[in-house]
Amino acid sequence: MLLGFEGRRYLVTGVLNDDSIAWHTARALQEAGADVVLTGFGRTRRITEAAASGLPYPAEVLELDVTRPEDPPRVAEELGRRWGSLDGVLHAVAAAPRSALSGNFLTASAEDAAGAFHTAAFSLQSLTAALVPLLSGARGNGGGSVVGLDFDASGAWPGYDWMGVSKAALGAVCRYLALYVGGAGIRVNLVAAGPVETVAGRAISTFDAIAGRWERDAPLGWDRADTARPVGPVLFLLSDLSAAVTGEIVHADGGMHAVRMGARTLEES
């Protein structure tokens, strides 16, 4: 196969239902011949297990709460017993309390802001650090690959608030991880997807306005309902085709990040 996923092993986090970027990534990896393990936690783990049952092949769901310091090492230990090495991981985890979103930027507490940062940004460091011994033993020519899901943090989006700040931090965490784990042959990159209809997206009160802007102005167009659209760039970064790429943010957003006035403006001029 072109991307060389046959026989590879991947950890996919952040699958909450069968209509998420993470779920579609897990499905694509399985269809390409890879073995996949998912993660879930707490009461929502049952939802993840239901989504896992809808994949082409049954996938086990390991308990992982990225805010608990003991969880990433425990998951790494389990994967080590199971596989001995790991070819890649998709970090698709982010959350913030309502008090840190939807126009509450000025009133959010330090605790709420720190919670958003811990889940969305610091967790990339804690999970990667725990998995370094496994990822350094990846069998591909490109070594182990860590890919995180991002959202454009080059500007301020109304209502995105402290999650937007945390996503900006995620980009910095990615670059520093690339610096510190590159010597072990591990790549760390992000995919900044446009707004899609997910549970996390719907937690933002301004989601419709933001998605509408994308659908009006993205040069390649955008469909908020197409949660599978960013999967291609994720697969590229997980594959050996990206062997020379690390510390990068790949935008899978229809080109929206590159423009200030969209394609419709050209049509109207």
What does this structure look like?
This protein is α/β, with parallel strands linked by helices and 269 residues long. It has one domain (9-268): NAD(P)-binding Rossmann-like Domain (Rossmann fold). It is 40% helix and 13% strand. It contains nine helices and seven strands; from the N terminus they run βαβαβαβαβαβαααβα. It has a seven-stranded parallel beta sheet with strand order 3-2-1-4-5-6-7, sandwiched between helices. Helix 2 links the parallel strand 2 (35-40) and strand 3 (61-63). The longest helix has 26 residues, at 110-135. It is globular.
Name its key features:
single chain, 269 residues, alpha/beta, Rossmann fold, 9 helices, 13% strand
Summarize the structure.
This protein has a single domain, classed as NAD(P)-binding Rossmann-like Domain (Rossmann fold, 3-Layer(aba) Sandwich), CATH 3.40.50.720. 40% of the residues lie in helices and 13% in strands. It has helices spanning 21-31, 45-52, 71-82, 110-135, 161-181, 199-202, 207-217, 231-238, 263-268, and strands at residues 9-12, 35-40, 61-63, 88-91, 145-150, 187-193, 249-252.
Stated plainly, the CATH topology is called Rossmann fold
User: CA-to-CA gap between the ends?
Assistant: 46 Å
Note the total helix count.
Answer: 9
Q: Tell me, what's the shape?
A: globular
Number of domains: 1
